[in-house]
User: Fold this.
Amino acid sequence: MLFYHRRLKSLVAIDLKMGEFEARYKGQMELYLRYLEKHETIDGENILIGLILCTGKNEEHIELMQLDKSNIKVAEYLTILPPKALLQENCTK
Assistant:
């Protein structure tokens, strides 16, 4: 998916993956970002942002891969609804 963030003035590429984060996803996202940089960005836009959504991630692997240097972020999504108590706890924070 490709979005444009008006306040950041940047294209945001989002890649939704099934399952845990894998190292190869970094290379795929870098390819997407380089393509967009070459063919889709216009003058005045800021650096592209890549977001990889997975069902899980290993924080140490993310750190060791230095994704931040490529402006790539990894986030987790839920595949099942958490218990009601946990949702209520998070809503009060």
About this structure: The chain is about 30% helix and 25% strand. The chain has one domain: 2-91. The mean pLDDT is 92. The radius of gyration is 15 Å.
